[in-house]
């Protein structure tokens, strides 16, 4: 592996993350619209889930169409523990994480022995089973009537009772998720994931414990979804099973593919594009198609977008963003050199 490729895979620079963090911190100071902040909160939550999906799909090569189930387990666990048992929010989140990890461990052992579309169908089945439980287990979930009165999140004495507070919390957790994913994929474990993705037979022949690593990344990505679900439940204060149906799992998959499943930033880019385009389409479609129901047309739009991306940009939008960023930095460097050259010429004619 040459040095340039090595530096791309094992980049230790945190400049990009620090710059993005600074931009995120400044957004509420310049944006007063609660609607825009709520959209960014949703982008942050889906970024966490999509980043976990990227680790599972893009780096370990395992497909999941059942992550809405883990998202729902986190949401209902937090809701039940805080409302029915009267315990603190952090306990609800931890119960969700623990329960999700146990479920992912139990279902992961048999399903991760499958590969390709067989694995995708098996995880889709898990999502459908969980959705049925959410609907029918009315004593716990409230059934289709939903779960009301979920309190605002309270962590370490801080009550997150406003959009701005939730915004900072969500993006703090999303960035921690990205940092953790970055460290994992650049570690020995990450190399094992890539080996499994490239060829399970070859990885097995060099001593990689395939089942162990596949199970680990599956559980970790499920925990990402669970944490996002817990925070979402406290944010909206009401949940019902329709929020965690199988279409949601497909949406997570689309976000991951759009952003670039083999990129650390792919989850963020895919989530942002998916959510923001979705909001724009809600306004545009009724004007163009003369209908109040835009959901079906959104499915068509993102379906077409997915096909086009898979044909012309199979690695997703992340590589294009990286190229654009590099061009911008190169242009800035060139402009600085020209400015210094012009200044030197004036001082020493």
UniProtKB/TrEMBL annotation:
Q: Do the record's keywords include Chaperone?
A: no
Keyword field contains Transmembrane: yes
**CDD domains, alphabetized:** TM_PBP1_LivM_like
Q: How does it sit in the membrane?
A: Multi-pass membrane protein
Q: Where in the cell is it found?
A: Cell membrane
Q: Which domain of life is it from?
A: Bacteria
- Cross-referenced InterPro entries: ABC_transp_permease, LivM-like
Q: Where is the signal peptide?
A: none
Give the transmembrane region(s): 16-49, 55-73, 85-109, 115-134, 141-160, 166-185, 215-233, 253-278, 299-322
Keywords, ordered alphabetically? Cell membrane, Membrane, Transmembrane, Transmembrane helix
PANTHER family noted in UniProt: BRANCHED AMINO ACID TRANSPORT SYSTEM PERMEASE (PTHR30482:SF18), HIGH-AFFINITY BRANCHED-CHAIN AMINO ACID TRANSPORT SYSTEM PERMEASE (PTHR30482)
* Name of the featured protein: Branched-chain amino acid ABC transporter permease
Q: Give the organism, scientific name.
A: Ferviditalea candida
